[in-house]
Amino acid sequence: MNILDKIAAFKRKEVEENKSLYPVKLLERTVYFETKPVSLSTYLLDKDKSGIIAEFKRKSPSKGNINLYAPVGATTLAYMQAGASALSVLTDKEFFGGKNTDLTEARNYNYCPVLRKDFIIDEYQVIEAKSIGADSILLIGAMLRKEQVSELARLAASLGMEVLFEIHDETEIDKLCPEITLAGINNRNLQTFEVDFENALRLAGKLPLDVTKIAESGISKPAQVAQLKQQGFKGFLIGEQFMRESLPGLACKKFIRQLNSVQHVA
To answer: Which of 226, 216, 230 lies closest to 255, judged by CA?
Structure first.
């Protein structure tokens, strides 16, 4: 059993427990459930913005503890003030040290789009995402069948949320469905956790022309973002690069400032 299989098995148990503790009718009563989500696509396609999706992540299975004590509100606000186009918040507790209230706190501190980063395998989690303030959700191609992707994406769309569909290899592209307009290419193999920055460049041309391309993982230099932009990428999900610093927001600010300098020179 690889790490992705292990996570999926744990999620199935976690979801069933949460269904009994927090039934859907209860989730639908939150203030966020009636709030119109902020469009991630709109923010990423805004030419005046950086395209950076800054991630709040405390730890990971591959890196262990990254930044256990960074405050969610202050960090995500600093990300937005630094020029990030959107936020990504890990809500998985078992493997990444996150929690649902992290996303809610980020939502309360910011007006930009907030992506729920988790391992979504059940419709309950989509409704849960809406109830905690998420504007968009991540669906991972390696974890889901084509039919599941379609069902989950349709539910998200009915709730006004967008889907970032993540792929790692070419075989997962055919799982895309009409409801999905955001496609992320993960440079990290979720089975081995090895990172290959070239993966995004290799797969970019294989994605449909009508989806917004986002590069994920392994981005550590502004020059890499500039290179990806030349290949048509509009979004760049960066977490560890910022979170391993004592002041992630400041690290993000420096990165975007350097990116602007690189683009100006180019």
So the answer is: 226
